[in-house]
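Posting for a labmate who doesn't have an account.
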Amino acid sequence: ARLRGDVEEARRQLGLATALLGDVAERAHVRTQIHDSLGYLADDLREARTHRRAAWLAASEGGAPPLIAQMLVGVADLAVRLDRYEQAGRLLAAGVSVRGRPDRSQPDAYRIEQDVRRHLGEARFTEVTREGTQTSWSELVAATLTA
């Protein structure tokens, strides 16, 4: 529903799924996914930042590279919404570095990458992605969330 742009239905489905999961919804990997989804659904930047922070904390607690990479794409989405395209490029590169390879099943990563390339141009995009692989992903997230 979210990818179709039906925010209300996406929120309803996420709420239903969370309720059905019961106590399982409190596990770090599930909290990461819930807050990641809510971050995309939030119209308000303050609310989006709150969900991105919660996803970051849960992903850090869980420590699974695919979840960390997923969370980094979400924070890159926030960076784009804040017009911080260079930071978004760094975050995407950090996500690929953490995961070990690009996640081609992640439509948000592709959308964000195209947006960042369009705003920065190929040369600058290449530079910021190099920076993203050389910087701690946690530092990149912290810098984005405090902006």
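Reply:
Got it, the structure tokens are right above this. The chain has a mean pLDDT of 95.
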